[in-house]
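In this supplementary section we document a worked example of the pipeline. Step one takes a protein sequence of length 121 as its only input; no multiple sequence alignment statistics are reported here. Step two produces a three-dimensional model, which step three serialises into structure tokens for compact storage. The input and output of this example are shown verbatim.
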Amino acid sequence: MRNWMAVLAAAAVLGACAHKPQPEGIELSPAVTLLVENNFNPPAQFSVFIVPQGGGRQVLGTVSTGQTGRFTYRPTNATDRFTFVAQGASGRTMTSPPFTLINVQVARWDMSVNLVQFTEQ
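The serialised model returned by step three reads:
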């Protein structure tokens, strides 16, 4: 019985050593550049948020009329679905179509046509 336990323990140790190590320089949550083009008509300044599927919206910042806001975001789970939300001072709210950040380096939201485009890694 004791020999049997030793064989199982050795197999467990060898099995643990056999898996591939994770390559260096790989981050769980890489940074993604988010661009928000405020070319909305009628012109207005917006506070912009990113909202993961599970909730808990995060403030990105403010984008003035005719400007493009540039923000950095580190998703905790890139497989989540996200939306951009823009809220004007008047209370007007605009929401982007849902998107994912899998292998995305840059996500650009054009508010005038409500389209999110991507540059992949």
